[in-house]
From TrEMBL:
Name of the protein in question: Uncharacterized protein
InterPro entries reported in the protein's UniProt record: RecG_C_sf
The organism's taxonomic lineage, starting at the top: Bacteria, Bacillati, Bacillota, Erysipelotrichia, Erysipelotrichales
Biological source species: Intestinibaculum porci
Amino acid sequence: MEDTIEVFKEYYTYDIISGMTRNYIEQIPEKAFREALANAIVHREWDLPSSVQVAMYKDRIEITSPGGLPAVLSQYEYLNTMISNLRNPKIADVFLKIDLIEKLDTGVTRIKEAYKHFQRKPLFQVNENSITVTLPLITQASHQREYLVMKELENKDLCSRKE
């Protein structure tokens, strides 16, 4: 999990330095990424000969967990309530104790909360044998333009205000 988060930070976060101020920019909310990854590991079906998959694209990240919803949990309950049927309570307990998750049964809610101020929202695709969470980029175009301008200015000694 830690290695995956390091790759995430390398490709989906950056700093913009303006004068004496450094701004940390997340292209995808790190909180949502951590939560989706931890949920995929904790709630996966370990009997399936498959792995948690993290696919990183230019405009999104898709995290796929082996195993669909437990039979006692509806898609509505999964997406809209804090009801959970813990498949792997021992793994969940370990993740809770080492602070990889904050509280049980709140993962989907936390992912949605991380996106509440953004136009693009996460998608949850529930299949019979897998669950995929898609986390879209949230970076506003203004941040991207600012980043490109700063990169361009780094290569110049002096320039006028108009330039």
